[in-house]
């Protein structure tokens, strides 16, 4: 009997804007929209699920969100945009520190999606060849 094959996602390792964008979009997808809650058809990601673990979950998701800011810095984005992105991550972390309220807020305040919107606007303006059409 043949083993079932695992789906592999190949992410580029380059420093060009297209490679960075693909990596960042994959991380955002994982953190915000990776799973569907059965019955209510609501998409959640690791940010909301791992955030249910007190302290450790918030530290892990903060580190993953900070990675998006770091990658944006590597793209050469202006400091004010990086500060705005860092503020989104910090606000999400602060909300996550509040028991129960923070867990509910993780479903509503999607800092990584907000940050990717900032990155997409920057890339679409400064690297138009890498533009993608949102569906």
From TrEMBL:
Annotated transmembrane regions: 48-70, 90-109
Keywords, alphabetical: Membrane, Transmembrane, Transmembrane helix
Keyword Signal carried by entry: no
Pfam families: DUF4112 (PF13430)
Entry protein name: DUF4112 domain-containing protein
Organism of provenance: Tsuneonella flava
């Amino acid at each position: 009997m043949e083993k079932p094959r695992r789906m592999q996602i190949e992410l580029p390792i380059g420093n060009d804007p297209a490679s960075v964008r693909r990596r960042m979009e994959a991380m955002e997808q994982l953190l915000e929209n990776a799973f569907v809650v059965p019955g209510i058809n609501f998409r959640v990601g690791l940010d909301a699920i791992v955030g249910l673990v007190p302290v450790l979950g918030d530290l892990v998701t903060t580190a993953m969100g900070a990675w998006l800011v770091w990658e944006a810095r590597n793209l050469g984005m202006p400091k004010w945009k990086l500060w705005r992105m860092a503020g989104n991550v910090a606000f999400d972390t602060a909300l996550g520190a509040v028991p129960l309220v923070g867990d509910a807020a993780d479903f509503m305040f999607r800092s990584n999606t907000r940050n990717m919107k900032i990155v997409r606007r920057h890339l679409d303006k400064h690297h138009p060849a890498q533009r993608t059409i949102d569906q």
